[in-house]
Amino acid sequence: MDSPAATGKFPGGWHRTFYTLWIGAFITGMGYSMTMPFISLFINELGHFSRFQLNFYSGLAFAMTFISQAIVSPLWGSLADRKGRKLMCMRASGVMACTIFVTGLSQTVWMIIGMRFLQGVFSGYINNATAMMAGETPHQHSGWVMAAMTTAGVAGNLVGPLLGGALSGFFGYRIPFFITGGLMFLVFLSTWLLTTEHFKAIQKTAMKPMRQIVAELDSQLIFVMFLTTMIVTASTMSIDPIISLYVRSLMHNHGNVAFVAGVVAATPGLGTLIAASKIGHTMDQIGPERVLRVGLTVAFVLFIPMTFTHSPWSLAFWRFLLGLANAALMPATQTVLTLDVPTEAFGRIFSYNQSFQAGGAVLGSLLGSAISGLSSYPMVFAVTGLTLLVNLGLVLTVRTPKKTY
Prior knowledge:
Helix content: over 70%
Number of helices: 18
Distance between the termini: 23 Å
Number of domains: 2
């Protein structure tokens, strides 16, 4: 049975599947950002820790999910290519509902860290939802759909901290975990009952080995896209942990630092939401690689004024423009993979891509913390900009596909 991506036609029930997965990805992103910013405060309530211990345990709880995710994602990707992406979305949302809910019941810091590790082992809803929509969408519309799926997580990440902060302030730090767990269970039910995947199961013996698939593809292009995913994620994560501290230093610890830091942190997401749809349609017209090259160039240039800014509001302005550029990065990378990879290998390719994304999250957070500790906050922006310049150089070395998008 030919996939919708190959036939060029939208299958029956496509819109219901798309909206269900979009909402599921939105809730997943919202649940993450509703709980993670307050994990250190939650840990602080569970014992008497020194400043070093609190920072160490908070960092460990943050990193554990991404470490386990990077290790196991290829295994889930292989299963996805044999059993379908819908089953993987159900697996991720179902288990995450349990682990996040149980995290709210934690009585020790090690219980939180253990639950975060398990959450990473079974996570991957957004990644699999994106891969599923890639297989359900005709190629000529892939750019718009990949951009739209990206906005789901971005929108969730914008809403999550506001909702999590309000809930934590009124009801305590456990409540956001309970609510997120309940919402993820609803995501599990809706994905099970409301989505349709046109997928033909493949026997393990009939699957092409990953080495053979890579040999048949442009392996250099695929690997550069994996590296792009890692570098773009690292560029985001290197800055996120130090934004509030940088804003506090720019304001000389006067005024409502938390509010201003929240605005500065949210502006890239707002820019991405505004630009995503337009950039998605542009990708369908001129091709994702060209859009990716422009996006990396603009992102690099924007990090220059961010390195030298002395005002939190000018930093917010430049980060808003960076959000416009970011709308061209991850969606373009995923669209290149969608167009260059056969449908039967989507699960494995997207899971490897998720491993690189998780690796970028760990690398970026460690890099940002180390540079800001050894040098200064502006130096984090300078180094991050240079990594994007290196990424641009890598992208320029790979060929442009001779395809009509």
